[in-house]
Amino acid sequence: MQSVGVLALATGLVLAGCGGGGGGGTSPQGSAGPKSGAVFTWGVPGMPTSFDPRKSAPLDPIFLNAVYESLINRTPAGELGPGLATKWEFGDDNKVLTFTLRDGVTFHDGEKYDAEAAKTSLEAFRKTGTLVGQLAILDKVEVTGPLELKLTFKEPAGYMLNALAGEAGIAVSPKALDAPDLVTQPVGTGPFTVTGLQPGRVSFKKFDGYRDAQAVSIGSMEMVVFNDESTRLRAVKSGQIDGTSISGEQIKEAEAAGLSIVNGPNTRFMGLLLNTKAKALSDPKVREALLYAIDRESINNSLQGGSCVPTVQPFPQSHWAATPDLKDTTPYYDVAKAKRLLAEAGYPNGFAMELASGTTSSYQALAQVVQAQLKQVGINASVKVLEFQQMINARRTGKFTAAVSGIQAGRPDPSQFIADFYLPGGPYNSGGYELPGGKELLAKVRASADDTERGVAMREAFNTVIKDGPPVIPICNLNYLAAFRKGVTGWQVPVLGDYDFTSVQIAD
User: Where is the Solute-binding protein family domain (predicted)?
Assistant: First the structure.
């Protein structure tokens, strides 16, 4: 089996705080054992975009992970292991990848999972939808046996291990792939099925035919939408829901209420997404001025309670893709330099632009602070608040000038960030920005499956984009934070945005 490096981020991912148990799902000392068949209720900021992997958005994995499995399993800590495939092997200088698939797996509709089913999903994903870019390098899919699959790539593709551990590796029942209701009625092989979908709530039930059903403690799940973070936390405190993600400034409130806190680093960051089609933002000097206009340290201290580490690059320093040369963010807050760059670009008196923000309190607060900081260098930003789905659509269609965004940089593979944001045709590069030498760098970072080799090209890419005026202005690397009522254990920090609901336990 092809081996991969374990993320350094996987360290310290524990369930801590009052009444907290370990990340492995053990119950707190003195509490009762797990309650079989319990209902787990989780608060989310919005409804799923689609249960069709070809139409899903970056925030959808929490829904997709409940109902689907991929060829390769990636744990919340970021480690790769057997999924729907039990083993795999690269050949021909990483241009051929062969899989041995798991026997005895069935889809929710009773259909058998085999190599033909796996091929059908891959072929569908590479033709239309959001996964086309990830699978563009795939040249041929061959069934070489009932449980044997061979993938041939146009060029070395070591990164595909991570890609196939994400949405691109998902198996959808062949009968459901072309069904019009796949967007709301997923048919996978995962531990849960969708039993209800109504405004503000998605209901799931344990799939008794799941290959490892005995490992699933909870019997059903309810994902309930609360647009505002404060409302979600109050719902946990009142017992209305069992848990939810929180922001750094909510830690003290959650601890004071006796809730357990999950806290750990991940590859998500807060930043300023720029549409380089906008006249001013098409100028590299203007984008560079924005980079120097942000006081990241004050944002971390005043808004995030110290849980959002200041950064000018997408990845935290503990990740293999990070650039050590960019660790110190102090030189990147320079109001005088930002003003000088704007003047050199022909905007000595600044300019006006619209700044989009999500509805949650943390996004709006950040937008207001960024608005004030940009004002200091002469940029007048008017804040426009967009609903959850509106923000997703704006980012995809390019109908925005700038937006305060939370971005998952590590999913499905760090190289995808370069493809999505730094190269023409990327789904979140609506302005058509092109990183100098980006195509060659992308090929280098994708060729090997060895993180050490890949890191060299990643560092070159980020050092280059900093000098070129980045289309994405990182502000801070977020710690993943979630709060749970007493008796709920087993939740693990999703380092790359992968969720494991099978480990969740609820005590009697």
Answer: 80-426
The first and second tokens of residue 434, run together, are 């092109």
Q: Is the predicted pLDDT of residue 32 greater than 70, yes or no?
A: no
Strand 80-82 relative to strand 72-74, pairing: antiparallel
CATH superfamily for 8-187+485-506 is Dipeptide-binding Protein; Domain 1 (3.90.76.10)
Amino acid identity of residue 281, one-letter, is L
Band (pLDDT 50/70/90 cuts) for residue 29 is very low
Structure tokens at 303: 């808004």
Topology given in CATH for the domain delimited by 265-479: Dipeptide-binding Protein; domain 3 (3.10.105)
CA distance 489 to 107: 28
CA distance 244 to 227: 12
Strands (E), 366-471: 379-385, 402-408
- Reply yes or no on whether the pLDDT at 380 is more than 80: yes
The encoded tokens of residue 299 equal: 């944002």
User: Does the fold of domain 265-479 match that of domain 8-187+485-506?
Assistant: no
Residue-by-residue DSSP string for 237-257: HTTSSSEEE--GGGHHHHHHT
| E strand residue ranges, 83-136 | 85-91, 96-101
- pLDDT digit string, tens, across residues 144-200: 999 999 999 999 999 999 999 999 999 999 999 999 999 999 999 999 999 999 999
Give backbone dihedrals phi and psi of 289, rounded to 5 degrees, phi first. -60, -40
Residue 74 burial (CB count, 10 A) = 28
CB distance 495 to 22 below 8 Å: no
C-alpha 484/C-alpha 272 separation (Å) is: 30
Helices (H), 279-348: 284-293, 296-303, 335-344
Q: Please, are residues 210 and 219 in contact by the beta-carbon 8 Å criterion?
A: no
pLDDT band at 508 (very low <50, low <70, confident <90, very high): low
Where are the chain's structural domains? 8-187+485-506, 265-479
pLDDT digits (tens, 9 = 90+) for 107-119: 999 999 999 999 9
